[in-house]
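From the methods appendix. Each design record in this collection lists the tokenized structure first, followed by the designed amino acid sequence. Records were kept in a plain field format so they could be parsed without special tools. The example shown here is representative of the layout used throughout.

RECORD:
FOLD TOKENS (246 positions):
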């Protein structure tokens, strides 16, 4: 797993933190897959990171006022897609436990160019207000305190670069990385996601995984309840089914 061993003492809540919304955007240009945004053309390409997670380089400066070179549009099938968070915690009288919350409130479009390359301003959104776990108390605390979803209801990801994908997706699963702006709790960071995806008929099916530390997005770990300790590392997963728009 992508979890760290860093833990903090907490109180009653059974811990957790949020998930994402996902937004994808690739820089356009050239005849092959674009791997840099327009803003990145004049600056060095960030060095690849070995695993998914928050990068140290600043967020990309993306302009989504226009979308060029779109040949095909894929739309998220919300009823077949799901976004999840996973957080490790230790509960009094129960021991180690993984808190998991999920939602199907995922929407968005993926734009592809003539050669199957993702185009800038493809976008996915996740409504954090609809996240549900196995404990309503955890969920309510997450909404009102940890994530403050009344103020920050949606998480977003805007892709600025691709690593390890040199040709259009085929029927065999391909693993690669997407790098771009991830915004949650009002904070935007450059984040790398590990993607495993393939074409299934007229659909694209895949999973995106990344991790972050709660303080990186100014999220205060919960401090209440029967929780003995809480890992501040949050693992995010998004299962996406995208169907071609006629």
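DESIGN:
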């Amino acid at each position: 797993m992508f979890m760290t061993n860093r833990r903090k003492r907490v109180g009653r809540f059974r811990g957790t933190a949020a998930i994402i919304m996902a937004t994808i955007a690739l820089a356009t240009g050239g005849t092959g897959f674009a791997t840099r945004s327009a803003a990145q053309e004049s600056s060095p390409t960030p060095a690849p990171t070995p695993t998914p997670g928050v990068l140290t380089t600043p967020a990309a400066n993306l302009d989504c006022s226009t979308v060029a070179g779109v040949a095909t549009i894929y739309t998220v099938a919300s009823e077949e897609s799901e976004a999840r968070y996973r957080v490790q915690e230790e509960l009094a009288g129960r021991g180690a436990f993984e808190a998991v919350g999920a939602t199907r409130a995922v929407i968005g479009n993926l734009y592809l160019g003539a050669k199957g390359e993702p185009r800038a301003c493809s976008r996915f959104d996740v409504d954090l207000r609809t996240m549900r776990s196995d404990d309503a108390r955890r969920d309510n605390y997450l909404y009102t305190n940890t994530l403050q979803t009344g103020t920050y209801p949606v998480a977003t990801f805007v892709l600025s670069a691709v690593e390890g994908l040199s040709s259009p997706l085929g029927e065999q699963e391909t693993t690669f990385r997407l790098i771009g702006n991830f915004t949650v709790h009002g904070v935007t960071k450059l984040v790398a996601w590990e993607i495993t995806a393939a074409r299934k008929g007229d659909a694209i099916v895949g999973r995106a995984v990344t991790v972050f530390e709660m303080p990186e997005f100014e999220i205060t770990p919960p401090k209440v309840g029967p929780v003995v300790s809480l890992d501040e590392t949050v693992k995010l997963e998004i299962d996406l089914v995208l169907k071609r728009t006629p």
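APPENDIX NOTE: Helices lie at 136-146.
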